Structure formats: structure tokens, C-alpha cells
Amino acid sequence: LSRRYEYLFENACALNLLLLADATIVDVNLAGAAMLGFSKAELLGRSAMDFIAPHHQTLAADMMRRSFLAEDTPSCAFDIATRTGLKTVLFAPGQHEVMEGGKVAAILVSAINITDQRRAQDALLEAGELHRSVFHSTTDAMVVLDRSRIHDCNDSDTTLFGFSRQQLLGLHPTDLSPAQ
After folding, report:
1. What letter does residue 150 receive in the DSSP assignment?
2. In the chain, what percentage of residues exceed pLDDT 90?
């Protein structure tokens, strides 16, 4: 049975780290070593905290502390720095305790690289901010319709139609047309 777990640990696509209470890396799989940009031999004996970005160190330390107390730990994302200094975002769905003699002897941290997803998310947010900026700064009256109702409007609409933004939201465009 142990050989099966070793095989799963070593050959997983996710980063797998086996850590002691002081964050010392006692085992790492090949995918994890590749994600960090080091060989397995270079990682063994180092502190996992060496790779956690400063703004996530407190969170990582708290997750480890809670794991060694056998408390539940939530899923979270951590920014890490690889050997080349490249910022990578890892998502860890929680840690798993390795018990010996009724006590937590080590924790297994598994994480996947979500850097590309985070970059795409950031790009979408940036594009949305640009759209909002252009939409609200133009002097042309513009509306966004959702199911033929005004979902959003800019300041030029309030000037043109003489209604507040709140009054315009939800109206049908024909509500703003002169009576026949």
C-alpha cells in the first residue's frame, strides 16, 4: 500500500510537499520541484517559507500552525517566487496531516499552479475598468441594455433625458421617446 501512495505522491501533476512543523521540506515530488525551478535535492531541508511571497507569509504560517493542531484549513492561493524570481500563484485546497503516534508529525501540502488563470482574471478586470472609464467619461449618451431594459447609463444620458441615473435604470428605450 505504501508503494502506491509513493507513486501517487511522486507522479501527481500538482505540487506535493511534505513539511515538518518548522516548514522544513522533507519531501517534494517532481512536479513541485519543477514548479519551483529547483531539483528535489536542492529543496530538501529548505524552509517552504523561503518561497512564499512576503505578503502571504503570515497566512501560510497560520495555515501550517492550524494544520499541526489538526484544525481544518480553508483553501487559499499563495504567491510564490520561483528560482528565476518569476511570480507564480499556487492554489492549495488545504493541507493533510500525516499522523504518527496520535500526533501530527508532518503535513502534506498539495497545490496547483493557477498563475495563468489569475493573469486572465486580472486582464478581464483591467479590461472591465477600461470599458467603464471610457463609458462614463465620453460626452456621447450611451446605455447598456439587458433584455431591452436600461442596465447602465452614463452622465450624458442624465443630461440629455433630464432623469437621474436611478430613474433611467430599468426603463425601456421607448419610455424615453416622445409620445406620438
Report:
1. E
2. 59
